[in-house]
Amino acid sequence: MCQDIRDMIECYRETLHDAVWHGTDKIVWPGEDMTSSRTANWRKRMALLRVDIEREVQKLEVIELMNEKKIKVIHELRENLFSGTSVMESRRSLQTANMAILQNDNIRILTLVTILYVSKIPSFFLLNH
Fold it and tell me: Mean pLDDT throughout 8-37?
């Protein structure tokens, strides 16, 4: 959108240059009599039109600046969101790692109990025979 606004402003400045507004551009001002009342009236109307167009171009420039500031804020928010998401993923990874450590401890205890139980079985059979 900013590029479109810049293009409109640039097109205005390239197309409606000073020669158009002063009456020396032969495409817009085809008449050769620069002193006639018709030409004076046309220049007066063009001057009013130029004021209106310049006002609108200034508004477009303000909108362009506002858009650029908003784009910058949006980029910063996106970066902050990415950082926040990375932190959350890191925390989730730590929780998963802690859970794995606890499960390993439980498996180790179960293994030790099994070893003790299995090591007691042969002596139990030997005592009964």
Answer: 77
Instruction: Using the predicted structure, report yes or no on whether residue 32 has a pLDDT greater than 70.
Output: no
pLDDT of 129 over the 60 cut: no
Q: Which of 23, 13, 24 is nearest to 54 (CA)?
A: 13
> Span 30-36, mean pLDDT?
68
What angle, rounded to 10 degrees, do the helices at 37-128 and 2-15 form? 160
Q: Are the C-beta atoms of 67 and 1 separated by less than 8 Å?
A: yes
Q: Which residue's entry shows tokens 């032969």?
A: 26
Instruction: Check the CA dihedral 78-83-84-88 and report its sign.
Output: positive
Cβ atoms of 63 and 5 closer than 8 Å:
yes
Task: Tell me 16's DSSP state.
Answer: S
